[in-house]
Amino acid sequence: MKKIIWIICIASFALYTTFTPAQQKAPQNTKPQSKSIADGYGNVKWGSTYNDVKPNVLGRIAFTDEKRIIVSKDGELEYRYGFFYPEINQETNQQPKLFYVVIQFPYISLDDMKKKMEEKYGPPTGESIKNNQGAYIWESESTSIIVWVDSYDKKPFCRKITYLSKVMAKDINAYHNLVFSKKEQEILKQLQP
């Protein structure tokens, strides 16, 4: 039960940050995103099963939980491949499906990180930066990329990027609504950091 609540809390936070209206950076008459974002991360697509993802993770596998996560490391980079496994319908052939990848690394200057992301994906489609904290967001129809910004010595730095399947996020939100009553959902929102 603790695992389910933990997964729901993380998924709710990810959904909240993904679907909360962000301040638009680009003028409305220009295309907010000039380069395409893949339907997945690396060599794996969103919704891929655990067994399909495991041989394609980047780095060396450090930890696995066949229903929730694969953690791998490549030098100072840590990759977390997260899976969604609804325990309500415990069909014997049902496998967890990939819905997010988090990359964590030592602090990098936000300017350097943003420049690299803009070279790869174009300008961000949204932002929620206040007091050198928040996030920049790049979105496509199937993927949201969130570059998390932390304030360190009163300067903006980045040390984590989240790649999130928008389709799987909708499925998780539907599952969340099925499992928890409206009152319980309000309480869970209050528990989020």
Widest sheet: strand ordering: 3-4-5-6-10-9-8-7
The major beta sheet can be summarized as: 8 strands, antiparallel
Structurally, the number of domains stands at 1
Report the portion of residues in β strands.
Answer: 25-35%
CA-based gyration radius: 17 Å
Summarize the structure.
The chain is 30% helix and 34% strand. It is α+β, with helices and mostly antiparallel strands and 193 residues long. A hairpin with a 3-residue loop joins strand 3 and strand 4 (69-74).
Describe this structure in words.
The relative contact order is 0.19. 30% of the residues lie in helices and 34% in strands. A hairpin with a 2-residue loop joins β4 and β5. It is globular. It is built from five helices and ten strands, in the order αββαββββαββββαα. The two termini are 20 Å apart. It has one domain. With 193 residues, it is of the alpha+beta class. The N terminus is likely disordered. α1 packs across α4. An eight-stranded antiparallel β-sheet has the order 3-4-5-6-10-9-8-7.
